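Person: Show me a sequence?

Helper:
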Amino acid sequence: MLYDVIVVGSGISGLFAALYAKRAGSDVVVITKSNPFRSNSAVASGGINAVLRQGAQDSIFKHFEDTLNGADGLSNQKNINEMCTDAPNIIKELSSMGVKFDAEENGEIKQRPFGGTTAKRTCYIADKTGSAIVQNLLQQCKKEGVEILNNHQLLNITKFDDKLAGITLLRREDSHVTAFACKSLILAGGGFAGIYRGHSTNPQESSGDTIAVALRAGMRLSNLEFVQFHPTTLKNGSLISEAARGEGAYIVDETEARFTNELQTRDKLSRTILEHMQKGHKVYLDFRHLSPDLIETKLPSTQKMALNGAGIDIRTELLEITPSAHYTIGGIWTRADTSTDLDGVFACGECAATGVHGANRLGGNSLLEGAYFGKIAGTEAAARARRVDYLPIDFAQVNKEYRRINMILDEESHFNINAMRKNLGETLFKKVGVYRDEEALISALEYVHYLMKNQFGLHCVNKERHNNVELSAILEFRNALIVAEAMILSAIKREESRGVHFRSDFPDRADKVFGMSSYVKSFGGSFLKISFENDMFENFFYKIKSYFKKLKG
């Protein structure tokens, strides 16, 4: 199959990218390995940030300033400014597509407060914002002729003369390996918080596939040590949206005493809650003072989640909570135009490191980031597709993938994939969690290396080729181990505390040494190099190079 632009991922960033590439005249396909409503965008329930009414209460500068302060000294200020400036336009565009944000009788969109903000600027649809946006974007994509291909799992990027040629895919329906050629590739496959299995709000499919694929293809990763824990989740990892606190729910302990500011940034709140729990307390969300009407109209999903997941009626009972891995801030290194180290490959959304979150993301900014950079990625990918020709697919690479899949399917398994995934999640939560130190991180790294040695003993017990979920899980687990190793090495190297990365043995921020992004680069297939660099000059020369390319095109 030949496409001008292939988009991997069906969250808000991938769908926006697909729309903008299609509108620029490209033949576009969106690849998703399961169902679009399994994406993190679809379960992002709280809202999307934008300043809709500038004045004394709020301004775009305040949005910029709050995002910058939340980033804890590590961010791309230009990207933040442009994202915040474009936010009102994104809300208007979503509204024009049929997204019905909660509104006043006069038609003004309602906005709620979120943690770390100085004003009410989070637009919402009750507490199911993400799913409503994804649903409308999917309808718009189909309306405009974007092809959506479900049940296809990305395996690797194929190259010809070290340049982008296309991708290899697993067709999950029959375990067949196929290859698609493209002129531009957009990676929008989400983050990797699902590798904290048993302690994550993400589905286990969130294993960092696109990030691992990028690393294998020679692209740099950045800031993988910054993993955000959501402070309010059920014991099973089910997310209780920040909308709950935005609408006035309290955080209390077993004595029903409030002990923290519910609307401080997520990193600080997670640490406060965990510290309180380590002292022997239980922690709860208290909705009992809120009116039943408010709960039913603004927090219906939360009410349902509490009842189904914990058997609790939040109108009359306290809901026990705990922090869980929720969002990965780092990912594939990108420039402001979403381009990566490999010409023709762009990245956006949670799998990309755009610099707008720095060391700690504010709630409501992730959907905004996805939409903003998705638009850029689609536009840039389509522009490149107009300038270049297809390159041939090296079928030796495809055959290599075919043999790998057959080996996983055909040989006898020596280990249990579910046990290994669960053990990895437990280890990461305990040793690479809200609190870290060198001893715990090294112990976690040793365990990941142990799992890496044993991963090739993982084979399918079920040999059926039709929708073999075990095959997909093994492929995801191998990617998870690659990403876990890179994350832990980055966390070991960053000997300071900043944002969501809190080192008990280095509790202070060290701007002189670590006031810049971390980078991960693969050498020789298995050796990873971690460095801290300022990429200002690299970006400068890239802009000059891009300018002359556009003149020629």
Observations:
- The mean pLDDT is 94.
- The radius of gyration is 22 Å.
